[in-house]
Design a protein that fits this description.
alpha/beta, FAD/NAD(P)-binding domain, 7-stranded mixed sheet, 22% helix
Length: 539
């Protein structure tokens, strides 16, 4: 099968890229290793006791999207406690995400210039801003205009309302000189783009049964299919990318997950849009005489600079609400957001980078304190019920420095169920990351104590990562010696190869990555179209 463009991976990067290219007139094949997850396989409105292990299953992970053969085909070697999200499903992580949609700030693209760490991105906020706007209007993002440099305003639908516990925390933040603003999420607060408004069930990360939360299958596929230029190829596992004698990618060698037959998908242009570990894995497994160490990897940069977010979770129980009559607080998971503020303290910090807080995305349905309280019997149950109305959660997310020694490699002696070498991840938090994490947790506790939380618990006693926010491994850069891609996500060494997604990030701040991933996808699609017109790329 031959196409103009072969896109590998159907998450936010691949879904948006495919839709934009199809609308531009390209014949697009979107190749996805997983299958379509049927509506009945989700647990849209399940109670905790209806879930496996009575609610202990990790929120937001429909089991069919994470098959055992994929979960086990990875190795963490000499690593701190991190995990990466390797979903196998049509729509990728868009089918069950929390939908936080934040623009990076201008300073987030200039770490070397401003803080003397890492590298500057090969593009600026001003260059990406029009694509942020395009994506926000395309997917529907709720929020409010706040005129904050650290979190640029966008194209917003009406914001989410603050719940009672959040109003109490906001009063404390105001006294501390800290801003709390409505969350910015790809969740509809009014009907938009033929999709209904959110009904506030509190299950965003379990998948949205009505499509109020943006997902690729609901929002991108109908538009792509309308063009007549789009073909979805599900259950196709890409083993490697094969090159011609000129070193251009000529085909993707794939295995059909149902029949197990091998086939080749030919195209003029290829775009790898997997998660950060999987994008690096595919290139490293694509060896040839022209690229003996992996595709586009003559400088040994593919797989390096693995990073993401360092995370913590601090919960408390507000005295003003504990013991009150319980009410329905489900909502749309987190309604409020505390942007980074540590940069306002000048040079007092002992570290580079920042952190932010997202409140109450853990949800009110599960009694988290039940696992933390001592005792049993009726007295224990009374205490659980008393504390529940006062529950408030500070989800803490901080920057991790991108370091070359943190990396993805492949083990050619250990193969997955399809005979493909597995990825091996090596990652250690550095001194800067540990100092930031400690300050982030202290600030979260200070805010909750100021809000009148009489019992505050850090449920993660040590730094963890990455919360599905993996980045790096196939990064952009000005210097071809230390990067794999140019500012349009095009490989320096292979002109018809693009890598789009978090893997392309030069550096990564505290903010959630998905809006930036989609903005890069739009920018890359338009660059591809222009390069074809100029005959710099041939179809």
């Amino acid at each position: 099968m031959a196409f103009d463009v072969c896109v590998i991976g159907s998450g936010p990067a691949g879904g948006v890229l495919s839709k934009e290219l199809a609308e531009a007139g390209a014949k697009v094949a979107l190749v996805e290793a997983g299958r379509v997850i049927r509506p009945e396989e989700f647990q849209f409105h399940a109670w905790p006791y209806e879930l496996p292990f009575r609610g202990k299953r990790r929120p937001g992970t429909p089991p069919p999207a994470y098959p055992k053969e994929v979960r086990e085909a990875i190795r963490y070697e000499d690593s701190d406690p991190i995990g990466v999200d390797r979903i196998r499903a049509v729509g990728g992580r868009s089918i069950h995400w929390n939908a936080v949609a934040l623009r990076f700030a201008e300073r987030d693209f200039r770490e070397r210039s401003l803080e003397g760490v890492e590298e500057d991105w090969p593009l600026t906020y001003q260059e990406l801003a029009p694509y942020y706007s395009h994506v926000e209007k395309m997917i529907g993002v709720t929020g409010s205009r706040e005129n904050l440099e650290i979190i640029p305003d966008g194209e917003f639908l009406p914001p989410l309302n603050l719940r009672c516990s959040e109003q109490i925390v906001k009063r404390a933040c105001n006294k501390m000189g800290i801003r709390m603003i409505p969350a910015r999420k790809a969740v509809l607060t009014r009907p938009y783009d033929n999709r209904p408004a959110c009904h506030y069930c509190g299950r965003c990360m379990e998948g949205c049964d009505v499509g109020a939360v943006f997902s690729v299958p609901v929002s991108m596929f109908p538009k792509a299919m309308k063009t007549g230029n789009f073909t979805l190829l599900a259950n196709k596992i890409v083993r490697e990318l094969q090159v011609d004698r000129e070193g251009r990618v000529r085909s993707a060698s794939v295995i059909d997950a149902v029949s197990r037959k091998e086939e080749a998908i030919e195209a003029s242009i290829f775009a790898v849009c997997c998660g950060a570990p999987e994008s690096a894995r595919l290139l490293l497994n694509s060896r040839s005489p022209q690229f003996p160490h992996g595709l586009a990897n003559s400088n040994d940069m593919v797989g390096r600079y693995l990073h993401g977010n360092v995370a913590a979770n601090v919960i408390g129980y507000l005295e003003d609400l504990a013991g009150t009559h319980p009410i329905n607080n489900d909502g749309a998971t987190d309604h409020t957001y505390i942007p980074r503020f540590n940069h306002l303290s000048g040079k007092q910090n002992r570290y580079s980078g920042g952190f932010h807080f997202q409140l109450n995305y853990a949800g009110f349905l599960f009694p988290h304190q039940a696992k933390l309280l001592d005792g049993f019997g009726s007295a224990f149950k009374r205490e659980v019920r008393k504390l529940q109305p006062g529950f408030v959660q500070m989800g803490c997310w901080g920057k991790v420095l991108a370091l070359p020694e943190n990396r993805v490699t492949v083990d050619r002696n250990q193969l997955d169920a399809w005979g493909i070498p597995i990825p091996v991840l090596r990652f250690r938090f550095g001194e800067n990351d540990l100092a930031l994490w400690k300050d982030m947790v202290e600030k979260a506790r200070e805010i909750l104590h100021a809000a009148g939380a009489h019992w505050v618990v850090n449920t993660l006693e040590a730094p963890a990562g990455f919360g599905s926010h993996e980045a790096g491994t196939v990064r952009m850069g000005h210097d071809k010696r230390t990067s794999v891609l140019n500012s349009y996500c095009q490989a320096h060494e292979v002109k018809n190869l693009f890598v789009v997604g978090g893997s392309a990030f030069t550096t990564y701040p505290e903010k959630n990555p998905t809006l930036t991933i989609m903005a890069l996808a739009v920018r890359t699609a338009r660059y591809m179209a222009e390069e074809v017109k100029k005959r710099h790329l041939r179809l």
